[in-house]
């Protein structure tokens, strides 16, 4: 009985959560007096900014609705307005609720979702800045383009309109492509649904009488999520009543759907990458430098092996060792990757094939970004801030809400920093190595930050030298690093995401960092440990195990294996309860441990 009631409660709670996500959707009706006919297309009154459209094939938007949507966008000064047809099918409506929070969509470009995949109005000047033509796009291309354009927009919204999806179109047509376009793993999406189904089925088998409560809740979930809300799905009754029968068909239709043009282009890109990796992996031994006998931080020769692991992010071949100095406790990769090796293991991690996934990860850290900015704001009033290792500028975009009077610039090696400037997240982009640019940057910034950057660099002390050189007297340096002495690092061992092999070359204890700052005339004025904690340890540990047992089947650096897609789907389904438990641990248990998995330090450069 207890299991059946727990399952029923869980299914119902999830449905109500999705209902709450959809409730704030704005509504746009047909403009009175306008023409009622016409398909989706550009246009509208000439007395406002011009808009282009991204439309799904077969999307039907009557002229009156189009005019009303354009008027809504202009009245609210929106650069992006994603339109949701009121008759959106149940499966797509639930996917929309899972992927897009309308509140965050309006207020936070970092938390934007891909929208409904129907019609998206976009200011033409923004389309030009993003290099995106207005066009009819297939589901994957539409999801990827809409999510990207939202990041360019200062103001955006998502609204329900009386438009109709293509009549007779299967609800799961293009679903796999849409999920991939937003950077999600379709196997994990199916696994979550299958795990819920398995829980309901187990309740019905173990206790047929009380199990009916779980089955009833499962069938009622679409009603709880959607009935009486802003959407009126055309298939609500059928989907709810036949849900136990339709769900397995949905999984199969998602994974076995015919590839879209966007997916075929994506697969062709992966085949090109496969050829590259096949050639590069012919001699991976060249990626490592000779092992050094001494500690790079203090020079001691008293070293011990600390952690050995493979590539825990991408699963590329190779084994990597972190050694620990017994004297100063500094931890470093030994033997260390060469410059060629770093380029190899960074490839497709944050750009290229891994860009969408990395974007989702960075977009989920708004709480942490604002915490960093709040620490600085409590001790300084920076006019010009340089974020070193800025990536696309996610931190700077979030920090601007905390420090609206501060100009944020970014520095990074990759092209992402220039993309950040195009988005408007960075005032200026500097591309290059920080240690090679101090003369050009000296005196231009009163605050420099390095967030989860030092551990990636071959010589952290040289990076600190450069920061001390460019800061004026009274300027501040803000640092955040993973804490190698933290409790999660001890509990999770080599599966702690903070080791991040092979990317992290140095893991610096807090005491060592503070001594290095003091030696450079930088006085620590504030430090945080618990506030710097990031809630991802347990979930990432489960993901690391899952990827080791059933790797994603489309990794181009691994040879194709028969049955890999099925193995991934089954393993992800089995791991779904573990992910749920890990999420709960990250949210409620691990934050209670002493300290945290990271630390922040704010240091001030002394006068003179």
Automatic annotation (TrEMBL):
Keywords: Methyltransferase, Transferase. It comes from the Bacteria. CDD domains: AdoMet_MTases. It holds the Pfam family Methyltransf_23. The keyword Transferase applies. One of its GO terms (molecular function) is methyltransferase activity. Transmembrane segments: none annotated. GO terms for biological process: methylation. This is Class I SAM-dependent methyltransferase. It comes from Actinomadura parmotrematis.
